[in-house]
Write a structure and sequence with these properties.
alpha/beta; 2 domains; 13 helices
Length: 371
């Protein structure tokens, strides 16, 4: 085995250090102009992002949780409505539904770690108004199946695509399959800023206009307040940094796919683990590998071994699916997801990794299961 290395799960300082000179240049430019809130840098980023994703509108907001709430509210969801979501997600997914006044209804995770379509169909009631798939780990759900279910029952699809900027299903980007979607720019995301940030994307004129109100106190262009709303604006400085990073974003994704290919090649023969689909496994999907989440036998022992060898790992959501957060009022039992969560483990996946780093991670895993 190679000499022991120090491989953090994620290197937050690299978000800044990779582009330090350019970021400082952007900070100086924005600061000298005093252009901090709702300025031309944000407008340019929104335009460029909408073009990148292939939608009519992108709207920068303070974070993806606010974006989910605003999207639900703009789509007309409220008290008495139910929204089906996959329980293998961050609590923010359910929170966006909850704060819009609707009821989040958790359903099972599929074997691909995305929302399970059969579980969705079983959960539909007369109160169901929407399905909210989480496009998890940088991969789209099977959107053909979900759209068939939505059309059959007259439901909306609103996407929590926070982890999936640039991920595609049959050539179409996450966040664009129905009324709208959201993205996160949290520093550890594939397109990360230097703090919190998010956006809403949509082709729907009404949703766009409502969300513009919701992010800025309900004010129209004359500054007249026309409804109760939030203060949830993407800072202009963050928008300028994000727009710069967007220009090389495809290189970010290409490198993540290279790392995923190395993991797949070196770990595919280990019977005790299940890997996510490889980059070339099925061309209906284009995955961006926000995370690299495996299923592992003796998961906790493997995690401890990797930690002892200087390798950072993570169990998403603290090891709990959202429906297991009983203090939030959930009562559902979802056996497949609960059992799945005993095996889930995320390996390092970011562009600060070298090929040698990934080789080392794989060598430790192989040695662990051989012994």
């Amino acid at each position: 085995m190679n000499a022991k290395r120090n491989i953090p799960f994620f290197q937050y300082q690299a978000v800044f250090q990779k582009y330090e000179d350019k970021i400082l240049e952007i900070v100086a430019d924005v600061g000298r102009r005093g252009a901090f809130i709702l300025q031309k840098d944000l407008e340019l980023f929104e335009k460029d992002l909408a073009e990148y994703v292939g939608v009519k509108y992108a709207l920068g907001v303070a974070n993806a949780t606010d974006a989910l709430y605003m999207l639900c509210r703009a789509a007309g969801l409220g008290p008495g409505d139910e929204v089906i979501f996959c329980t293998h997600t961050m609590v923010a997914t359910a929170a966006g539904i909850h704060f819009a006044g609707a009821t989040p209804v958790p359903v099972e995770t599929g074997r691909d770690h995305e929302i399970d379509s059969q579980s969705v169909e079983k959960a539909i009631t007369a109160k169901t108004k929407a399905i909210m798939p989480t496009q998890l780990n940088g991969r789209c759900a099977d959107m053909d199946e979900l759209r068939l279910i939505a059309e059959k029952h007259g439901l909306l699809i609103l996407e929590d695509s926070a982890q999936a900027l640039g991920a595609k299903y049959k050539g179409q980007c996450a966040g664009t399959f129905d009324r709208g979607g959201v993205f996160s720019f949290y520093p550890a995301k594939t397109l990360g800023c230097l703090g919190d940030g998010g956006c809403i994307v949509t082709n729907d004129d009404e949703i766009y206009e409502k969300c513009k109100l919701y992010r800025d106190h309900g004010r129209i262009d004359t500054l007249e307040v026309v409804c109760w709303c939030l203060n949830s604006r993407l800072d202009n400085l963050q928008a300028a940094i994000l727009d710069f990073k967007l220009k090389s974003y495809d290189k970010e994704i290409a490198r993540r796919r290279e790392v995923a290919s190395i993991y797949q090649e070196q770990l595919k023969d280990i019977e005790e683990i299940v890997l996510p689909p490889g980059p070339e496994d099925n061309h209906d999907w284009f995955d961006i590998y926000q995370n690299y989440e495996i299923e592992a036998q003796r998961r906790d022992d493997l995690k401890a071994c990797l930690d002892a060898n200087g390798i950072g790992t993570m169990i998403q959501w603290g090891g709990k699916a959202v429906h297991e957060m009983k203090k939030l009022g959930f009562t559902q039992s979802l056996p497949f997801t609960e059992e799945l969560f005993t095996r889930l483990l995320m390996l390092p996946m970011n562009t600060a990794l070298t090929d040698e780093d990934v080789d080392y991670v794989c060598s430790v895993i192989r040695k662990f299961y051989r012994e």
